[in-house]
Design a protein that fits this description.
alpha/beta, Aspartate Aminotransferase, domain 2, Aspartate Aminotransferase, domain 1, 9 helices, 299 residues
Length: 299
């Protein structure tokens, strides 16, 4: 069981196992009341083995109410394993607090400055899960295979640095994100912030722009050497409708012009100025082109 706005790495697994997908609210966070109703369905009694709810949505940045989720799961399916995809949370939330609420927590190193291809799985002591990879018995029999010692050390170093600088980075990046969004909204009409600022993490600025298509905006931003995406960063080249925005019920007038911009420890004020100017210019150009009268070719 998972939410409708989970990353495809989780959502597709649940769908392939014919599991249940729970609705989300308008922010993209799981609807706790709907989760409780599904868990209390007599047909699900004693049958729910795993509930997976992401800590932070990877596309729009909404923060999940994990404390409420944990309470509902423990009360209604005490035998279920509660997993959280905390990949987007590491830079913005204390994993110590999240780990207290769940049985399994997973993060990916490249999201906090570590090497690509590395990750961490936290598993509650005493919890037994059959491994997918068996053989040498490494990782306490949880995942066999020769250790990538360099990758492990680099991941640990990046995680320590992220943890020690988190509070300062939250303040700094929040100011940058707000400056970016404020600059765009002050200059362009019919642009909405997809999720309220107090409901999402600082590192994601997600906007929905009426009168433009994401693909066209991304093309012009790319020409201006600005990196952005229409959905999650790992699907930046995909032009199909976002399953997250569909689950949230975002009006198609706005969802076709969805834009996701990520900020982090390398982001500077100068980059924010460049990005906002480039985005404003791109949208104005596209809207002018759309309203310009067409000239028929002479024979």
């Amino acid at each position: 069981m998972c939410s409708a706005a989970e990353h495809h790495a989780v959502l597709h697994c649940v769908e392939n196992l014919n599991g249940q997908v729970v609705e989300v609210d308008s922010t993209g966070a799981i609807d706790v009341a709907k989760l409780e109703k599904v868990l209390q369905d007599p047909q699900n009694a004693g049958r729910v083995s795993v509930v997976s709810v992401m800590a932070v949505n990877n596309e729009v940045g909404s923060i999940s109410p994990l404390r409420q989720v944990a309470k509902v799961v423990r009360a209604n399916s005490p035998g279920a394993i509660l997993h959280t995809d905390a990949v987007q949370a590491t830079c913005w939330q204390d994993l110590r607090e999240i780990s207290k609420l769940v049985d399994v927590l997973t993060v990916s190193a490249h999201k906090f400055g570590g090497p690509k291809g590395m990750g961490v799985t936290m598993q509650r002591i005493g919890l037994e899960i059959d491994p997918l990879i068996v053989g040498g018995g490494q990782e306490r029999d949880r995942r066999s295979g020769t250790h990538n010692v360099g990758g492990i050390m680099a991941t640990a170093a990046a995680l320590r640095e992220t943890d020690s600088t988190r509070e300062a980075e939250i303040l700094r990046v929040t100011k940058l994100r707000d400056a970016l969004v404020d600059a765009v909204i002050s200059e362009l009409d019919d642009v909405i912030e997809t999720v309220a600022r107090d409901k999402r993490v600082p590192g994601i600025a997600h906007l929905c722009i009426a009168g433009c298509e994401s693909e066209s905006i991304l093309f012009l931003l790319d020409e201006a050497m600005i990196c952005a995406s229409a959905a999650s960063a790992c699907a930046s080249g995909a032009m199909e409708p976002s399953h997250v925005l569909l689950a949230m019920g975002v009006d198609a007038k706005y969802s076709v012009g969805a834009l996701r911009m990520s900020l982090g420890h390398t982001t500077t004020e100068q980059e924010i100025d460049r990005a906002s100017s480039a985005l404003i210019a791109a949208v104005n150009q596209l809207r002018r082109n759309k309203t310009a009268p067409r000239v028929s070719a002479s024979k």
